[in-house]
Amino acid sequence: MPRDADIAYNLADVRRRLEAAAHRVGRNPADITLVAVSKTFGPELIRAAVVAGQRVFGENRVQEGLVKAGTLADLDLTWHLIGHLQSNKARKTIPAFQWIESVDSLPLLQKLDGAAVEAGVRRSILIQVDLALEATKHGASGDEVLALVSAAASAAALELRGLMVVPPLPEHPEDSRPWFRQLVALRDSLLARGIPPERLSELSMGMSQDFEVAVEEGA
Ligand SMILES: *Cc1c(COP(=O)(O)O)cnc(C)c1O
Description:
- The chain is α/β, with parallel strands linked by helices.
- The chain has helices spanning 4-24, 43-51, 62-71, 90-96, 106-119, 142-153, 177-192, 211-216, and strands at 36-37, 56-59, 78-81, 99-103, 123-129, 158-165, 202-204.
- Helix 3 (62-71) links the parallel strand 2 (56-59) and strand 3 (78-81).
């Protein structure tokens, strides 16, 4: 496990690399959200990251996220669910997570919307796209995405903010670039069909190995 000092150092290093990548392609780093994935890390290390200036965290399991969001409720944090979500857990997800990045089916979208209405809150969602059609991966196929985007437009308490992709594990960071470009192309094709740009402004892509490539491609 890293120490507090490592967290601050590593975070500064990631931010520096993120800014450099943004500048390489003429983007403003302030337009990019860094989601710190805190899965498997305990609340004390998350606190260390908060002290170092990080406010947005990603968890891939609902239960683990619920516990941490509860433990750290004294802090003003934004939690993103990035892992696969079964629709029977939609109700549990809504209180703790402000963003749900892994919406990949109509039943899940409807359950989340119902739960958010019931709780009297609004939530931001991303549609997870499975570009590689890997048997082991979750996500909507390119064809299903349009139906999901249209359904999200009539949701009562969910706000569609964009798309998310988890490409096949890259051997080299450059391996991910074609997948990131495909997600951008999919977003552009949805814009061409008249989907309002503010519904598709966020592209969640890139992990530890390939986030600089992702930033260059519009993450
Ligand atoms: C774990 C995880 C990440 C982050 O992986 P890192 O290598 O820690 O950057 C991103 N997305 C999903 C869906 C994950 O489960």
